[in-house]
Amino acid sequence: MDSLHIGSYTFSSRLILGTGKFSSSSVMLEAVKASGTQLVTVALRRFNREQPGDDLFTPLTSIPGITLMPNTSGASTAAEAVQAARIARELSGSPFIKVEIHPNPQHLMPDPIETYEASKILAKEGFLVMPYIPADPVLAKRLEEAGCVSVMPLGSAIGSGQGLATAEMLKIIIRESTIPVIVDAGLRSPSEAALAMEMGCDAVLVNSAVAVAGNPPVMAEAFAEAVAAGRKAFAAGIMEKSGIAVATSPLTSFLGTEA
Amino acid sequence: MNPLPEWLSAGHDETRFRAMLSPDSPYTLEQLAGESKAITLRRFGRTMSLYAPLYLSNHCSSGCAYCGFASDRKTPRRRLEQEEIRKELGAMKRLGISDVLLLTGERTKAANFDYLRTSVATAAADMQRVTVEAFPMSVSEYRELAEAGCTGITIYQETYDPLRYAELHRWGPKKDFRERLETPSRALEGGIKTVGLGVLLGLADPQEDALMLYRHLRYLGKTYWRAGLSVSFPRIRPQTGSYEPPFPVSDHLLARMIFAFRIALPDVELVLSTRESPAFRDGMAGIGVTRMSIASRTTVGGYHDAESSDRGQFDVFDDRTVEAFCNALRDKNIEPVFKNWEHAYNGPSHMEAEK
Q1: Percent above pLDDT 90 for chain A
Q2: Residue B258 three-state SS
Q3: What is A4-255's CATH number?
Protein backbone atom coordinates (compact mmCIF):
# COMPACT_ATOMS: atom_id res chain seq x y z
CA MET A 1 0.00 0.00 0.00
CA ASP A 2 1.12 3.54 -0.80
CA SER A 3 1.40 4.87 2.74
CA LEU A 4 2.84 8.06 4.17
CA HIS A 5 5.65 7.46 6.65
CA ILE A 6 6.57 10.18 9.10
CA GLY A 7 9.11 9.16 11.73
CA SER A 8 7.94 5.75 12.90
CA TYR A 9 4.31 6.55 12.10
CA THR A 10 2.40 5.30 9.06
CA PHE A 11 -0.66 7.01 7.63
CA SER A 12 -2.86 5.85 4.78
CA SER A 13 -4.44 9.31 4.35
CA ARG A 14 -2.28 12.04 2.88
CA LEU A 15 -4.57 14.86 3.90
CA ILE A 16 -3.76 16.70 7.12
CA LEU A 17 -6.37 19.03 8.54
CA GLY A 18 -6.05 22.22 10.56
CA THR A 19 -8.72 22.92 13.16
CA GLY A 20 -8.96 26.73 13.43
CA LYS A 21 -11.44 29.11 11.81
CA PHE A 22 -14.45 26.75 11.98
CA SER A 23 -17.88 28.09 12.96
CA SER A 24 -18.07 25.59 15.84
CA SER A 25 -16.11 22.67 17.18
CA SER A 26 -18.91 20.30 16.17
CA VAL A 27 -18.62 21.38 12.51
CA MET A 28 -14.84 20.98 12.81
CA LEU A 29 -15.23 17.44 14.18
CA GLU A 30 -17.63 16.52 11.37
CA ALA A 31 -15.16 17.80 8.80
CA VAL A 32 -12.32 15.83 10.40
CA LYS A 33 -14.40 12.66 10.31
CA ALA A 34 -15.61 13.24 6.74
CA SER A 35 -12.06 13.81 5.49
CA GLY A 36 -10.78 10.44 6.71
CA THR A 37 -7.65 12.27 7.86
CA GLN A 38 -5.41 10.54 10.38
CA LEU A 39 -3.27 13.52 11.34
CA VAL A 40 -4.77 16.72 12.67
CA THR A 41 -3.07 19.85 13.93
CA VAL A 42 -4.39 22.03 16.74
CA ALA A 43 -2.92 25.23 18.16
CA LEU A 44 -1.77 25.11 21.77
CA ARG A 45 -3.43 28.49 22.25
CA ARG A 46 -6.78 26.83 21.49
CA PHE A 47 -6.30 24.19 24.22
CA ASN A 48 -8.55 25.32 27.08
CA ARG A 49 -8.62 23.00 30.05
CA GLU A 50 -10.58 25.44 32.18
CA GLN A 51 -13.52 25.80 29.81
CA PRO A 52 -14.56 22.67 27.93
CA GLY A 53 -16.85 24.58 25.53
CA ASP A 54 -13.89 26.67 24.33
CA ASP A 55 -11.44 23.75 24.04
CA LEU A 56 -10.50 22.33 20.64
CA PHE A 57 -8.16 19.61 21.86
CA THR A 58 -10.24 17.28 24.05
CA PRO A 59 -13.12 16.75 21.57
CA LEU A 60 -10.59 15.64 18.93
CA THR A 61 -9.27 12.89 21.20
CA SER A 62 -12.68 11.18 20.95
CA ILE A 63 -12.23 10.44 17.23
CA PRO A 64 -10.67 7.01 16.75
CA GLY A 65 -7.66 6.62 14.48
CA ILE A 66 -6.54 10.25 14.75
CA THR A 67 -3.03 11.36 15.67
CA LEU A 68 -2.92 14.87 17.06
CA MET A 69 -0.12 17.25 16.22
CA PRO A 70 -0.08 20.38 18.41
CA ASN A 71 1.27 23.55 16.80
CA THR A 72 2.96 26.65 18.17
CA SER A 73 0.98 29.22 16.21
CA GLY A 74 1.15 32.49 18.15
CA ALA A 75 4.81 32.05 19.08
CA SER A 76 7.04 34.78 17.70
CA THR A 77 10.45 33.52 18.81
CA ALA A 78 12.28 30.19 19.00
CA ALA A 79 12.28 30.40 22.80
CA GLU A 80 8.50 30.79 22.91
CA ALA A 81 7.96 27.96 20.45
CA VAL A 82 10.22 25.61 22.43
CA GLN A 83 8.39 26.40 25.64
CA ALA A 84 5.02 25.97 23.90
CA ALA A 85 6.12 22.62 22.43
CA ARG A 86 7.06 21.29 25.85
CA ILE A 87 3.71 22.38 27.31
CA ALA A 88 1.88 20.86 24.34
CA ARG A 89 3.65 17.51 24.77
CA GLU A 90 2.79 17.54 28.46
CA LEU A 91 -0.90 18.23 27.76
CA SER A 92 -1.42 16.11 24.66
CA GLY A 93 1.02 13.23 25.01
CA SER A 94 1.75 13.58 21.28
CA PRO A 95 5.37 13.29 20.12
CA PHE A 96 4.55 15.47 17.09
CA ILE A 97 5.03 19.21 17.06
CA LYS A 98 4.32 21.52 14.19
CA VAL A 99 6.73 24.40 14.66
CA GLU A 100 4.95 27.51 13.51
CA ILE A 101 6.66 30.83 14.23
CA HIS A 102 5.34 33.95 12.56
CA PRO A 103 6.68 37.02 14.28
CA ASN A 104 4.61 39.36 12.16
CA PRO A 105 0.96 38.79 13.07
CA GLN A 106 -0.13 40.69 9.95
CA HIS A 107 0.93 38.39 7.11
CA LEU A 108 1.82 35.28 9.16
CA MET A 109 4.96 34.50 7.16
CA PRO A 110 7.13 31.95 8.96
CA ASP A 111 10.43 33.23 10.36
CA PRO A 112 13.10 30.94 8.86
CA ILE A 113 15.76 31.80 11.44
CA GLU A 114 13.65 31.31 14.56
CA THR A 115 12.00 28.22 13.05
CA TYR A 116 15.39 26.64 12.38
CA GLU A 117 16.63 27.36 15.90
CA ALA A 118 13.51 25.97 17.56
CA SER A 119 13.40 22.88 15.33
CA LYS A 120 17.02 22.02 16.10
CA ILE A 121 16.41 22.17 19.86
CA LEU A 122 13.13 20.24 19.71
CA ALA A 123 14.49 17.49 17.45
CA LYS A 124 17.29 16.96 19.99
CA GLU A 125 14.68 16.66 22.71
CA GLY A 126 13.08 13.79 20.82
CA PHE A 127 10.08 15.58 19.32
CA LEU A 128 8.87 14.58 15.86
CA VAL A 129 9.36 18.06 14.43
CA MET A 130 7.34 19.27 11.44
CA PRO A 131 8.30 22.89 10.69
CA TYR A 132 6.09 25.30 8.74
CA ILE A 133 8.50 27.17 6.46
CA PRO A 134 8.85 29.48 3.50
CA ALA A 135 9.36 27.51 0.27
CA ASP A 136 13.16 27.75 0.50
CA PRO A 137 15.05 24.66 -0.73
CA VAL A 138 18.20 25.36 1.31
CA LEU A 139 16.26 25.92 4.50
CA ALA A 140 14.43 22.64 3.85
CA LYS A 141 17.75 20.75 3.64
CA ARG A 142 19.09 22.48 6.75
CA LEU A 143 15.99 21.40 8.68
CA GLU A 144 16.38 17.87 7.39
CA GLU A 145 19.96 17.86 8.72
CA ALA A 146 18.69 19.24 12.03
CA GLY A 147 16.57 16.11 12.49
CA CYS A 148 13.09 17.19 11.40
CA VAL A 149 10.81 14.34 10.30
CA SER A 150 9.14 16.42 7.59
CA VAL A 151 9.16 19.91 6.14
CA MET A 152 6.02 21.94 5.51
CA PRO A 153 6.66 24.66 2.95
CA LEU A 154 3.88 27.10 2.17
CA GLY A 155 2.01 27.11 -1.14
CA SER A 156 1.11 30.75 -0.51
CA ALA A 157 0.28 32.93 2.51
CA ILE A 158 -1.94 31.40 5.22
CA GLY A 159 -5.61 31.98 4.50
CA SER A 160 -4.86 33.69 1.19
CA GLY A 161 -6.29 31.00 -1.08
CA GLN A 162 -3.62 31.88 -3.64
CA GLY A 163 -2.80 28.23 -4.30
CA LEU A 164 0.65 27.02 -5.34
CA ALA A 165 2.25 30.43 -5.85
CA THR A 166 5.59 28.90 -4.83
CA ALA A 167 5.37 25.94 -7.25
CA GLU A 168 8.85 26.26 -8.76
CA MET A 169 10.53 26.31 -5.34
CA LEU A 170 8.35 23.45 -4.13
CA LYS A 171 9.52 21.31 -7.06
CA ILE A 172 13.14 21.78 -6.01
CA ILE A 173 12.34 20.98 -2.37
CA ILE A 174 10.47 17.81 -3.42
CA ARG A 175 13.26 16.68 -5.74
CA GLU A 176 15.98 17.12 -3.13
CA SER A 177 14.25 16.01 0.07
CA THR A 178 14.71 12.66 1.82
CA ILE A 179 11.92 13.41 4.30
CA PRO A 180 8.23 13.93 3.48
CA VAL A 181 7.35 17.31 1.98
CA ILE A 182 3.94 18.57 2.99
CA VAL A 183 2.47 21.64 1.36
CA ASP A 184 0.94 23.75 4.07
CA ALA A 185 -1.10 26.91 3.63
CA GLY A 186 -2.63 28.76 0.72
CA LEU A 187 -4.65 26.00 -0.97
CA ARG A 188 -8.12 27.14 -1.95
CA SER A 189 -9.69 24.27 -3.85
CA PRO A 190 -9.37 20.49 -4.21
CA SER A 191 -7.88 20.85 -7.69
CA GLU A 192 -4.92 22.74 -6.18
CA ALA A 193 -4.43 19.96 -3.64
CA ALA A 194 -4.49 17.41 -6.46
CA LEU A 195 -1.93 19.46 -8.35
CA ALA A 196 0.38 19.56 -5.31
CA MET A 197 0.14 15.77 -5.02
CA GLU A 198 0.78 15.32 -8.75
CA MET A 199 3.92 17.42 -8.33
CA GLY A 200 5.12 14.82 -5.84
CA CYS A 201 4.28 16.33 -2.46
CA ASP A 202 3.87 13.63 0.15
CA ALA A 203 0.82 15.21 1.74
CA VAL A 204 -1.04 18.51 2.02
CA LEU A 205 -2.35 20.41 5.01
CA VAL A 206 -5.60 22.30 4.56
CA ASN A 207 -7.51 24.48 7.00
CA SER A 208 -9.14 27.71 5.78
CA ALA A 209 -10.40 26.20 2.52
CA VAL A 210 -12.41 23.64 4.49
CA ALA A 211 -13.31 25.80 7.52
CA VAL A 212 -14.84 28.66 5.56
CA ALA A 213 -16.46 26.56 2.82
CA GLY A 214 -20.24 26.65 2.55
CA ASN A 215 -20.36 23.03 3.72
CA PRO A 216 -17.13 22.14 5.53
CA PRO A 217 -17.65 18.35 5.91
CA VAL A 218 -18.44 17.95 2.20
CA MET A 219 -15.47 20.14 1.25
CA ALA A 220 -13.24 18.04 3.52
CA GLU A 221 -14.37 14.93 1.67
CA ALA A 222 -13.73 16.63 -1.68
CA PHE A 223 -10.19 17.47 -0.61
CA ALA A 224 -9.63 13.88 0.53
CA GLU A 225 -10.69 12.57 -2.88
CA ALA A 226 -8.54 15.11 -4.71
CA VAL A 227 -5.49 14.28 -2.59
CA ALA A 228 -5.99 10.56 -3.19
CA ALA A 229 -6.46 11.10 -6.94
CA GLY A 230 -3.41 13.35 -7.20
CA ARG A 231 -1.26 10.85 -5.34
CA LYS A 232 -2.49 7.97 -7.48
CA ALA A 233 -1.64 9.95 -10.62
CA PHE A 234 1.83 10.76 -9.33
CA ALA A 235 2.47 7.13 -8.44
CA ALA A 236 1.16 5.95 -11.83
CA GLY A 237 3.54 8.28 -13.69
CA ILE A 238 2.12 11.29 -15.49
CA MET A 239 2.73 11.62 -19.22
CA GLU A 240 5.10 14.31 -20.38
CA LYS A 241 3.67 17.47 -21.86
CA SER A 242 4.08 17.50 -25.62
CA GLY A 243 4.40 20.72 -27.54
CA ILE A 244 8.11 20.52 -28.28
CA ALA A 245 8.15 22.01 -31.78
CA VAL A 246 9.77 19.92 -34.49
CA ALA A 247 11.66 22.13 -36.93
CA THR A 248 10.55 21.79 -40.57
CA SER A 249 14.21 21.81 -41.63
CA PRO A 250 15.60 19.26 -39.20
CA LEU A 251 18.48 20.64 -37.13
CA THR A 252 20.41 17.36 -37.28
CA SER A 253 20.07 16.43 -40.98
CA PHE A 254 23.79 17.05 -41.38
CA LEU A 255 24.38 13.95 -39.23
CA GLY A 256 22.79 11.66 -41.79
CA THR A 257 20.42 8.84 -40.85
CA GLU A 258 20.89 7.22 -37.44
CA ALA A 259 22.20 3.69 -37.71
CA MET B 1 5.37 75.03 12.68
CA ASN B 2 3.65 71.92 11.42
CA PRO B 3 3.03 69.77 14.50
CA LEU B 4 2.58 66.65 12.38
CA PRO B 5 5.48 64.33 11.56
CA GLU B 6 6.19 63.63 7.91
CA TRP B 7 4.66 60.13 7.95
CA LEU B 8 1.36 61.60 9.06
CA SER B 9 1.34 64.58 6.70
CA ALA B 10 1.39 62.63 3.47
CA GLY B 11 0.73 59.09 2.41
CA HIS B 12 1.04 56.86 -0.62
CA ASP B 13 -1.39 54.32 -2.04
CA GLU B 14 -4.36 55.79 -0.25
CA THR B 15 -6.51 56.66 -3.25
CA ARG B 16 -8.81 53.71 -2.70
CA PHE B 17 -9.00 54.23 1.06
CA ARG B 18 -10.07 57.85 0.52
CA ALA B 19 -12.56 56.81 -2.15
CA MET B 20 -14.16 54.23 0.11
CA LEU B 21 -14.82 56.88 2.78
CA SER B 22 -15.60 59.87 0.64
CA PRO B 23 -19.15 61.31 0.92
CA ASP B 24 -19.56 60.83 -2.86
CA SER B 25 -17.91 57.41 -2.81
CA PRO B 26 -18.13 55.36 -6.00
CA TYR B 27 -18.58 52.27 -3.80
CA THR B 28 -21.96 51.41 -2.33
CA LEU B 29 -22.05 50.28 1.29
CA GLU B 30 -23.25 46.86 0.13
CA GLN B 31 -20.28 46.47 -2.26
CA LEU B 32 -17.84 47.28 0.50
CA ALA B 33 -19.62 44.94 2.91
CA GLY B 34 -19.32 42.05 0.44
CA GLU B 35 -15.61 42.57 -0.10
CA SER B 36 -14.97 43.08 3.60
CA LYS B 37 -16.86 39.90 4.46
CA ALA B 38 -14.86 37.80 1.99
CA ILE B 39 -11.54 39.08 3.36
CA THR B 40 -12.60 38.59 6.96
CA LEU B 41 -13.67 35.04 6.30
CA ARG B 42 -10.47 34.10 4.48
CA ARG B 43 -8.15 35.65 7.01
CA PHE B 44 -9.95 35.10 10.33
CA GLY B 45 -12.42 32.33 9.53
CA ARG B 46 -15.75 31.98 11.29
CA THR B 47 -14.46 33.02 14.70
CA MET B 48 -14.68 36.00 17.05
CA SER B 49 -12.07 36.53 19.72
CA LEU B 50 -13.45 37.83 23.00
CA TYR B 51 -12.07 39.95 25.83
CA ALA B 52 -13.35 42.03 28.70
CA PRO B 53 -12.18 45.32 30.24
CA LEU B 54 -11.26 45.65 33.91
CA TYR B 55 -11.21 49.22 35.26
CA LEU B 56 -8.47 49.28 37.90
CA SER B 57 -8.83 52.93 38.85
CA ASN B 58 -10.76 56.03 37.82
CA HIS B 59 -8.35 58.53 39.36
CA CYS B 60 -7.25 60.95 36.66
CA SER B 61 -5.13 64.04 36.23
CA SER B 62 -6.30 65.02 32.77
CA GLY B 63 -9.12 67.28 31.71
CA CYS B 64 -10.48 65.63 28.59
CA ALA B 65 -13.69 67.50 27.77
CA TYR B 66 -15.52 64.33 26.67
CA CYS B 67 -14.59 61.87 29.44
CA GLY B 68 -16.65 60.75 32.41
CA PHE B 69 -13.50 60.26 34.47
CA ALA B 70 -11.91 63.71 33.75
CA SER B 71 -10.38 65.24 36.86
CA ASP B 72 -13.07 67.95 37.25
CA ARG B 73 -15.96 65.46 37.35
CA LYS B 74 -17.64 64.80 40.69
CA THR B 75 -17.40 61.02 40.17
CA PRO B 76 -16.28 59.19 43.36
CA ARG B 77 -12.63 58.13 42.88
CA ARG B 78 -11.43 54.70 43.68
CA ARG B 79 -8.72 52.22 42.86
CA LEU B 80 -8.74 48.47 43.27
CA GLU B 81 -6.18 46.94 45.64
CA GLN B 82 -4.45 43.73 44.54
CA GLU B 83 -6.79 41.54 46.61
CA GLU B 84 -9.79 43.26 44.98
CA ILE B 85 -8.25 42.78 41.54
CA ARG B 86 -7.94 39.07 42.23
CA LYS B 87 -11.62 39.01 43.23
CA GLU B 88 -12.62 40.81 40.03
CA LEU B 89 -10.50 38.44 37.94
CA GLY B 90 -12.12 35.50 39.71
CA ALA B 91 -15.57 36.85 38.86
CA MET B 92 -14.47 37.38 35.24
CA LYS B 93 -13.01 33.89 35.00
CA ARG B 94 -16.31 32.46 36.18
CA LEU B 95 -17.82 34.16 33.12
CA GLY B 96 -15.29 32.33 30.97
CA ILE B 97 -13.07 35.34 30.28
CA SER B 98 -9.34 34.67 29.87
CA ASP B 99 -8.31 37.75 27.91
CA VAL B 100 -8.42 40.97 29.96
CA LEU B 101 -7.83 44.65 29.17
CA LEU B 102 -6.72 46.60 32.28
CA LEU B 103 -7.65 50.29 32.35
CA THR B 104 -6.66 53.31 34.40
CA GLY B 105 -6.89 57.05 33.90
CA GLU B 106 -3.94 59.36 33.32
CA ARG B 107 -0.93 58.83 35.62
CA THR B 108 -1.74 59.83 39.24
CA LYS B 109 -0.25 59.16 42.68
CA ALA B 110 -3.02 56.65 43.34
CA ALA B 111 -2.56 54.83 40.04
CA ASN B 112 1.09 55.25 39.05
CA PHE B 113 3.45 53.01 37.12
CA ASP B 114 4.35 50.74 40.06
CA TYR B 115 0.69 50.17 40.79
CA LEU B 116 0.02 49.34 37.14
CA ARG B 117 2.98 46.96 36.84
CA THR B 118 1.97 45.12 40.02
CA SER B 119 -1.59 44.87 38.73
CA VAL B 120 -0.38 43.46 35.40
CA ALA B 121 1.58 40.77 37.24
CA THR B 122 -1.48 39.95 39.34
CA ALA B 123 -3.63 39.64 36.23
CA ALA B 124 -1.02 37.65 34.28
CA ALA B 125 -1.00 35.03 37.04
CA ASP B 126 -4.70 34.40 36.45
CA MET B 127 -5.45 35.27 32.83
CA GLN B 128 -4.05 33.92 29.57
CA ARG B 129 -3.65 37.32 28.01
CA VAL B 130 -3.27 40.75 29.59
CA THR B 131 -3.36 44.04 27.71
CA VAL B 132 -3.37 47.57 29.09
CA GLU B 133 -5.14 50.83 28.28
CA ALA B 134 -3.60 53.41 30.58
CA PHE B 135 -1.28 56.40 30.35
CA PRO B 136 1.68 56.94 28.01
CA MET B 137 4.92 55.49 29.37
CA SER B 138 8.63 55.53 28.61
CA VAL B 139 10.39 52.78 26.64
CA SER B 140 11.91 51.35 29.81
CA GLU B 141 8.55 51.37 31.59
CA TYR B 142 6.99 49.50 28.69
CA ARG B 143 9.82 46.99 28.88
CA GLU B 144 9.06 46.39 32.56
CA LEU B 145 5.37 46.07 31.76
CA ALA B 146 6.12 43.47 29.06
CA GLU B 147 8.28 41.54 31.49
CA ALA B 148 5.41 41.58 33.99
CA GLY B 149 3.19 39.86 31.38
CA CYS B 150 1.56 42.68 29.39
CA THR B 151 1.44 41.68 25.72
CA GLY B 152 -0.43 44.61 24.25
CA ILE B 153 -1.45 48.18 24.85
CA THR B 154 -4.34 50.24 23.58
CA ILE B 155 -3.77 53.95 23.13
CA TYR B 156 -6.19 56.14 21.22
CA GLN B 157 -5.02 59.40 19.72
CA GLU B 158 -8.71 60.46 20.16
CA THR B 159 -8.30 62.88 17.21
CA TYR B 160 -5.42 63.49 14.80
CA ASP B 161 -6.51 67.11 14.32
CA PRO B 162 -3.98 69.05 16.44
CA LEU B 163 -6.27 72.06 16.90
CA ARG B 164 -9.28 70.03 18.02
CA TYR B 165 -6.92 68.00 20.19
CA ALA B 166 -5.69 71.15 21.95
CA GLU B 167 -9.26 72.36 22.58
CA LEU B 168 -10.46 69.05 23.98
CA HIS B 169 -7.53 68.23 26.24
CA ARG B 170 -7.90 71.15 28.57
CA TRP B 171 -5.17 70.31 31.07
CA GLY B 172 -2.97 67.52 32.31
CA PRO B 173 -0.25 65.44 30.70
CA LYS B 174 -2.53 64.37 27.84
CA LYS B 175 -2.35 67.92 26.43
CA ASP B 176 0.85 67.00 24.59
CA PHE B 177 -0.28 65.83 21.12
CA ARG B 178 3.14 64.65 19.92
CA GLU B 179 3.90 62.79 23.13
CA ARG B 180 0.70 60.81 22.69
CA LEU B 181 1.27 60.27 18.98
CA GLU B 182 4.64 58.67 19.65
CA THR B 183 3.40 56.42 22.45
CA PRO B 184 2.68 53.33 20.30
CA SER B 185 6.22 53.53 18.91
CA ARG B 186 7.71 53.66 22.41
CA ALA B 187 5.61 50.67 23.48
CA LEU B 188 6.80 48.59 20.53
CA GLU B 189 10.40 49.61 21.14
CA GLY B 190 9.96 48.46 24.74
CA GLY B 191 8.93 44.97 23.67
CA ILE B 192 5.13 45.24 23.80
CA LYS B 193 3.82 42.92 21.09
CA THR B 194 0.57 44.47 19.97
CA VAL B 195 -0.76 48.02 19.86
CA GLY B 196 -4.37 49.03 19.48
CA LEU B 197 -5.12 52.40 17.91
CA GLY B 198 -8.27 54.39 17.43
CA VAL B 199 -9.97 57.73 17.28
CA LEU B 200 -12.88 58.71 19.48
CA LEU B 201 -15.57 59.13 16.87
CA GLY B 202 -17.58 62.31 17.29
CA LEU B 203 -14.75 64.67 18.26
CA ALA B 204 -13.58 65.79 14.82
CA ASP B 205 -14.05 65.23 11.09
CA PRO B 206 -14.34 61.43 10.94
CA GLN B 207 -13.07 60.99 7.36
CA GLU B 208 -9.95 63.05 8.08
CA ASP B 209 -9.31 61.21 11.34
CA ALA B 210 -9.76 57.82 9.64
CA LEU B 211 -7.19 58.73 7.00
CA MET B 212 -4.66 59.84 9.64
CA LEU B 213 -5.29 56.67 11.62
CA TYR B 214 -4.67 54.64 8.47
CA ARG B 215 -1.35 56.45 7.93
CA HIS B 216 -0.37 55.85 11.54
CA LEU B 217 -1.04 52.11 11.15
CA ARG B 218 0.93 51.91 7.91
CA TYR B 219 3.83 53.76 9.52
CA LEU B 220 3.90 51.44 12.54
CA GLY B 221 3.55 48.33 10.37
CA LYS B 222 6.57 49.27 8.28
CA THR B 223 8.73 50.62 11.09
CA TYR B 224 8.01 47.90 13.65
CA TRP B 225 7.45 44.90 11.43
CA ARG B 226 6.82 42.45 14.25
CA ALA B 227 4.02 44.56 15.70
CA GLY B 228 0.52 43.19 15.96
CA LEU B 229 -1.93 45.97 15.11
CA SER B 230 -5.55 46.48 15.97
CA VAL B 231 -8.05 49.25 15.42
CA SER B 232 -11.03 50.11 17.59
CA PHE B 233 -13.99 52.24 16.60
CA PRO B 234 -15.23 53.90 19.80
CA ARG B 235 -18.17 56.25 19.27
CA ILE B 236 -19.02 58.78 21.96
CA ARG B 237 -21.74 57.43 24.23
CA PRO B 238 -23.82 59.12 26.93
CA GLN B 239 -21.73 59.36 30.07
CA THR B 240 -20.98 61.22 33.27
CA GLY B 241 -20.53 64.88 32.25
CA SER B 242 -22.92 64.50 29.27
CA TYR B 243 -20.68 65.67 26.43
CA GLU B 244 -22.44 66.32 23.12
CA PRO B 245 -20.26 65.19 20.20
CA PRO B 246 -19.85 67.97 17.57
CA PHE B 247 -19.31 65.45 14.73
CA PRO B 248 -21.79 62.63 15.37
CA VAL B 249 -21.03 59.47 13.37
CA SER B 250 -24.00 57.55 11.95
CA ASP B 251 -24.28 53.76 11.89
CA HIS B 252 -23.84 53.88 8.13
CA LEU B 253 -20.62 55.88 8.30
CA LEU B 254 -19.25 53.71 11.10
CA ALA B 255 -19.98 50.57 9.06
CA ARG B 256 -18.32 52.14 6.02
CA MET B 257 -15.22 52.93 8.09
CA ILE B 258 -14.97 49.38 9.40
CA PHE B 259 -15.27 47.96 5.88
CA ALA B 260 -12.68 50.41 4.53
CA PHE B 261 -10.15 49.44 7.21
CA ARG B 262 -10.78 45.72 6.64
CA ILE B 263 -10.28 46.09 2.89
CA ALA B 264 -7.24 48.37 3.14
CA LEU B 265 -5.61 46.39 5.98
CA PRO B 266 -6.79 42.78 5.56
CA ASP B 267 -4.76 41.35 8.45
CA VAL B 268 -5.40 43.95 11.15
CA GLU B 269 -7.64 43.02 14.06
CA LEU B 270 -10.77 45.22 14.12
CA VAL B 271 -12.39 45.70 17.52
CA LEU B 272 -15.92 46.70 18.55
CA SER B 273 -16.84 47.27 22.19
CA THR B 274 -20.09 47.12 24.14
CA ARG B 275 -20.53 50.85 23.50
CA GLU B 276 -22.39 49.71 20.41
CA SER B 277 -25.89 48.26 20.26
CA PRO B 278 -26.56 44.51 20.16
CA ALA B 279 -28.03 44.86 16.66
CA PHE B 280 -24.98 46.72 15.32
CA ARG B 281 -22.52 44.31 16.95
CA ASP B 282 -24.34 41.22 15.71
CA GLY B 283 -24.56 42.74 12.24
CA MET B 284 -20.85 43.56 12.05
CA ALA B 285 -19.73 40.14 13.28
CA GLY B 286 -18.42 38.07 10.40
CA ILE B 287 -18.27 40.97 7.95
CA GLY B 288 -15.31 42.94 9.29
CA VAL B 289 -14.99 42.98 13.06
CA THR B 290 -12.87 40.16 14.54
CA ARG B 291 -12.61 41.02 18.22
CA MET B 292 -15.29 42.09 20.69
CA SER B 293 -15.59 42.83 24.38
CA ILE B 294 -18.27 41.02 26.36
CA ALA B 295 -20.18 41.42 29.61
CA SER B 296 -18.33 44.69 30.19
CA ARG B 297 -18.45 46.68 33.40
CA THR B 298 -17.07 50.20 33.01
CA THR B 299 -17.07 50.98 36.73
CA VAL B 300 -14.21 50.27 39.12
CA GLY B 301 -15.06 46.97 40.83
CA GLY B 302 -18.05 46.26 38.59
CA TYR B 303 -17.67 42.50 38.16
CA HIS B 304 -17.57 41.42 41.78
CA ASP B 305 -20.15 44.03 42.77
CA ALA B 306 -22.46 43.83 39.79
CA GLU B 307 -25.25 45.70 41.64
CA SER B 308 -23.32 48.98 42.01
CA SER B 309 -25.22 52.02 40.78
CA ASP B 310 -22.08 54.04 39.91
CA ARG B 311 -21.89 55.27 36.32
CA GLY B 312 -18.81 54.12 34.50
CA GLN B 313 -16.55 55.81 31.99
CA PHE B 314 -19.30 55.34 29.43
CA ASP B 315 -22.68 53.62 29.36
CA VAL B 316 -22.64 50.08 28.03
CA PHE B 317 -25.17 49.64 25.21
CA ASP B 318 -24.79 45.90 24.67
CA ASP B 319 -25.37 44.58 28.19
CA ARG B 320 -26.18 41.01 27.19
CA THR B 321 -24.82 38.18 29.30
CA VAL B 322 -21.90 36.13 28.02
CA GLU B 323 -24.29 33.32 27.22
CA ALA B 324 -26.79 35.50 25.34
CA PHE B 325 -24.04 37.18 23.34
CA CYS B 326 -22.31 33.91 22.46
CA ASN B 327 -25.61 32.40 21.38
CA ALA B 328 -26.20 35.35 19.06
CA LEU B 329 -22.77 34.73 17.50
CA ARG B 330 -23.47 31.01 17.14
CA ASP B 331 -26.78 31.82 15.45
CA LYS B 332 -24.68 33.64 12.87
CA ASN B 333 -22.43 30.61 12.44
CA ILE B 334 -19.55 32.28 14.26
CA GLU B 335 -17.60 30.58 17.02
CA PRO B 336 -16.91 32.69 20.12
CA VAL B 337 -13.27 32.13 21.11
CA PHE B 338 -12.31 32.86 24.72
CA LYS B 339 -8.76 31.57 24.71
CA ASN B 340 -6.66 32.43 21.70
CA TRP B 341 -3.34 32.98 23.44
CA GLU B 342 -0.84 31.00 25.46
CA HIS B 343 1.14 32.03 28.54
CA ALA B 344 4.32 30.83 26.81
CA TYR B 345 3.97 33.75 24.36
CA ASN B 346 3.91 36.41 27.08
CA GLY B 347 7.52 37.61 27.06
CA PRO B 348 8.72 40.89 25.51
CA SER B 349 8.97 40.86 21.72
CA HIS B 350 12.08 39.61 20.00
CA MET B 351 13.22 43.08 19.05
CA GLU B 352 13.83 43.64 22.74
CA ALA B 353 15.08 40.13 23.53
CA GLU B 354 17.99 40.63 21.15
CA LYS B 355 19.34 43.67 22.94
Answers
A1: 71
A2: helix
A3: 3.20.20.70
